[in-house]
Write a structure and sequence with these properties.
- This protein is an alpha/beta fold.
- Helix content is 46%, strand content 20%.
- It contains five helices and six strands.
- It has a four-stranded parallel sheet, with helices on both faces.
- Helix 1 packs across helix 2.
- The longest helix is centred in the last third of the chain and has 27 residues.
- It is elongated and about 70 Å long.
- It starts with a strand and ends with a helix.
Length: 162
């Protein structure tokens, strides 16, 4: 019997560039977010490699750009229901395995509290659209860009005061 899986993908907003919403469907979410696209590809490839069947996907955008929040609980309740209906295992990328800045205790606590059977995948780099995508490098690049944007905003504000 083929094992069923529900893919779960999450990211945070980047308010400085206006990224505050995410389409609900996985394809639309992946088109809007490189982080979601990476997770979708990582999960889909894993499920295919082990001969499983991906029966549903849930994408989630947290509410805070700098930390995870309990807002994830509603998305996990959706996953819980899908897993129960399909006798499936949730599969997700465990970024906090190697990226301190992507810790998500609400995700791990929610999985445990809701009794969701889950499989965590390592955030290994993989080729996407002909280029190697390393999610950890991606997060580090965004962190640097975030501070560059803030510095420029501060310089512009100070110049406006003169």
């Amino acid at each position: 019997m083929t094992e069923a899986f529900v893919g779960f993908y999450w990211t945070r907003p980047v308010t400085l560039i206006g990224f505050r919403t995410l389409p609900e469907d996985a394809e639309g979410a992946a088109a809007s977010s490189k982080t979601i696209k990476y997770q979708k590809e990582r999960v889909r490839r894993h499920v295919q490699e082990i001969g499983g069947k991906l029966v549903a996907e849930v994408a989630f955008l947290d509410t805070q750009p700098d930390r995870s929040t309990n807002a994830i609980r509603d998305a996990l309740l959706k996953v819980q229901k899908l897993c129960a209906n399909h006798k499936a295992t949730m599969v997700y990328v465990n970024f906090q395995e190697v990226a301190q800045g992507r810790r998500n205790w609400w995700l791990l606590g929610g999985i445990e509290d809701l009794g969701i059977k889950a499989e965590a995948l390592s955030p290994n780099p993989l080729p996407i659209d002909g280029r190697l995508f390393d999610p950890i490098q991606h997060f580090q690049n965004w962190s640097r860009r975030h501070y560059q944007i803030l510095e420029q905003l501060e310089k512009d504000a100070l110049a406006g005061l003169k």
